[in-house]
Design goal:
Purple Acid Phosphatase, chain A, domain 2; single chain; 4-stranded mixed beta sheet; 18% strand; 6-stranded mixed beta sheet; Serine/threonine protein phosphatase; 215 residues; Calcineurin-like_PHP; globular; Ap4A_hydrolase; bis(5'-nucleosyl)-tetraphosphatase (symmetrical) activity
């Protein structure tokens, strides 16, 4: 699935969170601090739920929660390639070693949880009262956003071309939507430029976890 749409009117408050990478306890503390209501509120993730941090299974468990939505990250893709196509070494080198330390029921549960990632969209369109917000893991690789248009999936998951340009002082707005939210590139602080917001602040490396309120 490439595109998925959500209408914000279904929820009271809507939040978006940067790359979790197994940092479930950090997330839970932030949700408590924000008085997150699991019956009325929604949390959206920019992907990379797993790897490197202490609790990848705990972050994967979020996929079963009705108050949670997520786009596909490159770490989810590495995991799926490893368990279905045997590309184990690449995933292990990038933080997937936690999976191969599991055994028995915990291993079976983790495999089932990872398989749920196959249904994740690459691009999430969130429609609020006056705004259209687009969420993807690394980039929306076009200068103009159109629902359903063909885009390079590898760039959606991996590209740093746009953020590198922004960090050099160049760039431009992406037309067709009001705001775009990405993760993928660890930063000391969120980067907000034009209508693009990069919110992976490297929580797994000891920095803070960025959680922003969209509605």
């Amino acid at each position: 699935m490439i595109y998925q749409s959500l209408k914000g009117e279904q929820w009271r408050h809507i939040y978006i969170v940067g790359d979790l990478h197994g940092c479930r306890a950090l997330l839970d503390r932030q949700l408590i601090a924000r008085h997150f209501d699991y019956q009325q509120d929604l949390l959206i993730s920019v992907g990379d739920l797993i790897d490197r941090g202490p609790d990848s299974p705990g972050c994967l468990a979020l996929l079963q929660q009705p108050w949670f939505r997520c786009v596909m990250g490159n770490h989810e893709v590495m995991a799926l390639n490893a368990i279905s196509e045997g590309e184990r070494s690449f995933w292990e080198r990038n933080g997937g070693d936690w999976f191969y330390q599991l055994s028995g029921a915990r291993l079976v549960a983790a495999r089932h949880a990872l398989n749920r990632c196959r249904g994740l969209p690459l691009i999430l369109q969130l429609t609020l009262a006056q705004r259209t917000i687009v969420i993807a893991h690394a980039d929306y690789p076009a200068s103009h956003y159109i629902w359903g248009q063909a885009v390079d999936t590898q760039q959606i998951l991996w590209s740093r071309e746009r953020i590198n340009a922004l960090q050099r002082g160049s760039g431009a707005a992406i037309s067709g939507a009001d705001a775009f939210y990405f993760g993928h590139t660890p930063l000391n602080q969120p980067l907000h430029a034009f209508n693009q917001h990069y919110i992976d602040t490297g929580a797994v490396f000891g920095n803070r976890l960025t959680l922003l309120q969209l509605q």
